[in-house]
Amino acid sequence: MRFTLMLALNTVTIKTVLQTRPQISKILLGVCAAVVAIAAPLQITNSAVYADQYDDQIQAIQNQVDQYQQSANALQKQANTLQKMIGVLNAEKKSIQAQLELSQTKLNKLTADIAANEIKLANNKDALGKIVADLYIDDGISPLEMLASSKNVGEYMDKSEYRSAVSERLAETIDAIKTLKDQLEKDQQAVKKVVAQQKAQRASLIAKEAEKQKLLKETKGKEAAYQKQIANSKAKMSAIAAEQQAALARLTNGGAYNSGSVGSFQFRNFSGNMPCGGGGYTLCGAQDSYADQWGLYNRECVSYTAWAAYNRFGKYVTNFSGRGNAQDWPYSAPDLMGASVSRSPSVGAVAILPATPGFAPIGHAMLVEAVLGGGWVRVSQYNFGGTGEYSTMDIKSSGVVFVHFDNR
């Protein structure tokens, strides 16, 4: 289908491409005027390249980027947690290793003590055997024979006391050695048990650490893959954005035209785009880098109009709950916030351009700053032209509907 645009004075008919974000609000993409000669007709065919085609691609890729980034963030958190767990396991492993070394040292000492005690037993074996033999022989001698063999009574008493003392000392020594041997063996068995438990605990910690290390490696590998996908998607977005800007520049002759019409929608006195912050809007930063309190991406037309109606005019505007595209406002605002919709403009109301194929696929939102004569309305807006920037212009009220929010 073909149609002709005629220029009259400084007013031109233009094709404008508008793009919005499916998850939140959407934006009227920009006013694009074709380059024409004064008072000469211009024909534009459906084969013309419109910026919304690029924006559709950008939106699709942005959705992928968001999904990739969410997955990457989740994996990063998991990796951080795993890294912390590995650190804890390492600390526990070091503690167990220190305890194990201590227990092993104790076991070594006990083993050495047992060996030393056995040496003592071996060294005293002969002496103890001789004493036992002597005592055995002495036990076979009667007291009368011992007395007869003694030089005197004193020697007899000495022999008798010596034999008794040796006998007692021998019994004590045997008991002490036996007790020490039993205690050392018990201690040795107890320490061996502790060492075995600590070795098992260390082996368990080593196995857990290996498992966490494996999982950490897999997680970081997945995160790296997502980050690579994000980088590739952003590169595609940058390329498409460059094509979009070039297309808009061609269609608007580098912004030379500041008025035009598409169907019943007419505008004039377009100010051109200005940096973020115009109109008092504070939600700057990279466009679409975060959502505002109304569930709308920053620096989009709907985010600005919701912000301005709420902050500048004290209107009751709440979260749009996923129904924030400009074309949705005439239905979602009354349903969610009790707003009213009419064809009559008022200061502080939001002018909504309905969905216009090839121009505003899901509508465009503008804030009414003043009601002028002749059916004209002064509006402020963001993202007219797809740049996420501030601008003002006059529009014909006949081409839009007005959403009137209640006062807070």
Describe this protein's structure.
With 408 residues, the protein is of the alpha+beta class. It is 53% helix and 12% strand. The protein contains 6 helices and 10 strands, in the order E-E-H-H-H-H-E-E-H-H-E-E-E-E-E-E. It has helices spanning 51-123, 125-139, 143-149, 153-252, 301-311, 329-337; strands at residues 2-5, 42-45, 260-262, 265-268, 340-342, 350-353, 364-371, 376-382, 390-396, 401-404. It has an 8-stranded antiparallel beta sheet. The longest helix has 100 residues, at 153-252.
Give the gist of this structure.
The chain has helices at residues 51-123, 125-139, 143-149, 153-252, 301-311, 329-337; strands spanning 2-5, 42-45, 260-262, 265-268, 340-342, 350-353, 364-371, 376-382, 390-396, 401-404.
